[in-house]
Specification:
Blueprint lengths: L2 H81 L3 H82 L4 H11 L6 E5 L2 E2 L8 H10 L3 E2 L6 E3 L3
Parallel strand pairs: 1-4
Antiparallel strand pairs: 1-2, 3-4
Helix pairs in contact: 1-2
């Protein structure tokens, strides 16, 4: 076997491993992404619960302010009633007091209902935050494992790339360029002739080209699948 072909086959062997390592590294990203999406969904639920709590708290403050206003009105009406001597005016003042009291009663009932809803919403917000914390804790070990896998794959990949660069320097530039063009779309891209045919697609090579390959060690393109072919000893 020609020296260039031997060197090229060594490069191709590394390329196959490098391609596998790169694929395995690529597969890690969606797993990390899926975990992050799970966290994001849980955090969105926490934010939604917090917004609901904030809305009800705002309503509670508004009703509390309304109660305070109605109580001030009640005090004014009571003070006015205390100064009235006319029966007709007293009747009107008493009616105003009764109306103010009804408004205060309605506001206090609404405050009580709001307090119940707020307590429930706050429990829900706490539960959702707890779910996020538990999810982060559950993912911590998985993330650590994926991180270790990523680091080890990257270490192996860097090592094979260095070795591949050393081996590629032993291949003629023209042959390496031809191989790399083919390998970008078809890896492995170098196959032997077996029984006068391409080992990849079984296309028979013309006799004249086979003789040249056997005599000089040159490589030829397969007319069937486009890979590089070399003659075995």
């Amino acid at each position: 076997m020609h020296q260039d072909v031997e060197a090229l086959l060594a490069v191709q062997a590394d390329d196959v491993v490098i391609h596998d390592l790169e694929s395995r590294l690529t597969e890690l990203a969606p797993r990390l992404g899926a975990m992050q999406q799970e966290i994001d969904r849980a955090m969105a639920a926490v934010a939604q619960a917090a917004q609901a709590v904030a809305f009800e708290e705002r309503r509670q403050r508004e009703v509390q302010a309304r109660v305070a206003q109605h109580r001030q009105l009640q005090e004014r009406n009571q003070a006015q009633l205390n100064t009235i001597t006319d029966s007709r005016q007293a009747t009107a003042a008493i009616a105003q007091l009764d109306q103010t009291k009804r408004m205060i009663d309605e506001d206090e009932r609404e405050l009580q209902a709001l307090a119940g809803r707020l307590a429930e919403l706050r429990r829900d917000a706490d539960d959702r935050q707890l779910a996020v914390d538990e999810l982060r804790q559950a993912q911590e070990e998985a993330r650590a494992s994926l991180g270790a896998d990523h680091a080890e794959l990257q270490r192996q990949l860097d090592e094979y790339r260095r070795e591949r660069a050393t081996k590629a320097a032993r291949v003629s530039r023209s042959l390496l360029a031809r191989y790399e063009r083919i390998a970008r779309r078809h890896l492995p891209g170098v196959f032997p002739l077996i029984a006068n045919s391409c080992a990849n697609c079984n296309t028979t090579l013309p006799l004249q080209r086979r003789a040249a390959m056997a005599g000089t060690g040159v490589t030829e393109l397969c007319e069937g699948c486009g890979v590089l072919l070399y003659a075995t000893d």
